[in-house]
Design a protein that fits this description.
The complex is a heterodimer of chains A (410) and B (118).
Chain A lengths: L1 H4 L1 H15 L4 H38 L15 H10 L11 H18 L17 H9 L1 H12 L3 H32 L4 H6 L5 H4 L1 H15 L10 H4 L9 H26 L12 H25 L5 H29 L5 H29 L22 H7 L1
Chain B lengths: L1 H28 L28 H18 L1 H6 L6 H23 L7
Chain lengths: 410, 118
């Protein structure tokens, strides 16, 4: 019975007991059980995302009015496994003149940077890699490693488009990190801790209901961090051929996509953990397995909302993307921090029945003011007309009549 | 506490090991038939002109600098946010002053035109 209540703790205790029974010293028991747990977590993350790729392609297909994958297995469910197998046996072409160390290290680093985040995410009450006291800071720091992977790929490829794509990517990623880091201060402030587990435990009221604006800013910046539409300038195929990964082939190329898909799911997971109460739900404390199911349900919903955005929005231009970040999100998040800090502090003695609605109202006022400012800005802005309304066009009243004459002259 | 970081170290190793091994296996299994045309730089399909490590837009550098200033300064706010429930109103006002200085810096950069993508 205890297995179904909490399989992870049960199995860990069983494993530790077996290892200690072999007469291993406690330190080695810990190392071995950590290694096995970590390997299962990392492999599970990658395999789970493989299934999600199918869901994403299916949903994107429906958005674009087609079926999506539907050949392999029921509803095409084995499509992503077939793709994996195919890309696994493709030739690795190493172009001349590449810088071998960054070129080969980049795909590994991209995947590793994303996977490393999983070690601090609480998947249920008892199921987590590690309850790090600086978990959120760790997430921010490790997330930045992905940018290193991208710039290494662009620099090592010996290709102008790749270099340009890498510069764009890094400019986008580091810019969007500023509002992300600032908006992350809100959950930290409300929970009074950087530990992910502690933040989840403090969410008697989901933080999205206390500060919807912070959640919105975090969501937008995370989509930009993943580099998906509408922020997919990184791999703007119509402008940059393919972005930083032009010169890659075979599984090295595939690894960038693995990294992208795992990243997309990871940010949904982080969003759920920080703003949607993580694994919390009715009965999740008694049955941690139930908490895991709640977490996955919430995360999948967030993930599919992001995919619907990807399917329906056009791509930003680079100056627009920079403007959105530096002139809208960054000042807004800074103001939000100041307002939230003051409001929460001033209303600390009051009951949450008063302070939470006031916080929501303050957030909504900020959203409204921003929206009004934007509307005024766009009304005032003059759009330069390219071309003219009375551009000369071929008219039916003056048909080209010279055909017969030219034939005659020939 | 220390075992937490042991887990992080082990997990980092695993996170690097998994894609590394996958790429290594794929490199062993996949066919290898390089020829001069295949391994030439692809770019956009046209023949490559000049070397790849070219000069790039100075705007990237400007944004890099602004990012550096902001990221370092916002990290200072994290300890304050962790201790938020324990500090008094005075510390909150001080932090707001700090945020106001940050905002001032942003407005300065904005007015100077550093945020324009030209």
């Amino acid at each position: 019975m205890s297995f179904f209540r909490d399989p992870v703790v049960f199995l860990t205790q069983w494993l530790n007991g077996v290892l200690a029974g072999w007469g291993l010293p406690p330190a080695w028991v810990q190392v071995i059980s950590f290694t096995i747990g970590g390997a299962i977590l990392a492999t599970g993350a990658m395999l789970f995302v493989t299934i999600l790729i199918w869901g994403e392609r299916k949903l994107l297909g429906r958005v674009q009015d087609r079926y999506g994958p539907n050949r392999l297995g029921p509803w095409g469910i084995f499509q992503s496994f077939a793709d994996m197998l195919k890309i696994f046996i493709k030739e690795h072409i190493t172009p001349v003149g590449v810088d071998l160390i960054p070129y080969n290290l980049a795909p590994i680093l991209s995947v590793a940077a994303v996977l490393m985040v999983w070690s601090v995410i609480p998947l249920s009450m008892t199921m987590y890699g590690v309850d790090l006291s600086v978990g959120l800071l760790y997430f921010v720091a490790v997330g930045a490693l992905g940018e290193l992977g991208i710039i290494m790929a662009g620099w090592g490829s010996n290709n102008k488009y790749a270099l340009l794509g890498a510069f764009r990517a890094v400019a986008q990623l580091i810019s969007y990190e500023v509002p992300m880091v600032v908006s992350l201060l809100v959950p930290v402030m409300l929970a009074g801790s950087l530990s992910m587990n502690e933040i989840v435990k403090q969410q008697n009221i989901w933080f999205i209901f206390i500060s919807p604006l912070a959640a919105l800013i975090f969501f937008v910046t995370q989509i930009a961090e993943v580099g998906r539409a509408p922020f997919d300038l990184v791999e703007a195929e119509s402008e940059l051929v393919a972005g930083f990964n032009i010169e890659y082939s075979g599984l090295k190329f595939g690894m960038f996509f693995v990294a992208e898909f795992v990243h997309a799911f990871t940010v949904a997971l982080i969003f759920t953990t920080l703003f949607l109460g993580g694994w919390r739900g009715p009965g999740a404390e008694q049955y941690p397995l139930l908490g895991f199911i709640y977490l996955m349900l919430k995360t999948t919903i967030v993930y599919f909302i992001a995919i619907l955005m990807r399917g329906s929005l056009p791509r930003f231009r680079i100056d627009q993307m920079m403007d959105v970040n530096w002139k809208l999100l960054t000042p807004l998040s800074l103001i939000l921090i100041a307002v939230t800090a003051l409001a929460v502090k001033a209303m600390q003695p009051l009951s949450p029945w008063i302070s939470v609605p006031v916080n929501i109202v303050l957030n909504l006022i900020l959203i409204y003011l921003t929206q009004q400012l934007l509307v005024r800005y766009f009304k005032r802005r003059k759009i330069r007309e390219v071309g003219s309304r009375n551009r000369p066009v071929a008219r039916l009243e003056e048909p080209v009549t010279s055909t017969a004459e030219s034939e005659g002259s020939l | 506490m220390l075992s937490d970081w042991l887990y992080i170290a082990i997990f980092t190793g695993i996170a690097l090991f998994l894609p590394g091994v996958a790429i290594f296996l794929a490199a062993v299994l996949s066919p290898k038939k390089p020829d001069p045309i295949k391994t030439s730089t692809y770019e956009c399909g046209m023949e490559t002109v000049g070397e790849a490590w070219v000069q790039f837009k100075v705007q990237y550098y400007v944004f890099g600098l602004i990012f550096l200033a902001f990221d370092v300064e916002t990290v200072f706010l994290y300890p304050w946010a962790v201790a938020f429930n324990k500090v008094g109103l005075f510390a909150v006002l001080e932090a707001i002053l700090f945020i106001a200085i940050l905002l001032g810096g942003l407005i300065y950069a904005w007015r100077k035109g550093a945020l324009e993508w030209v």
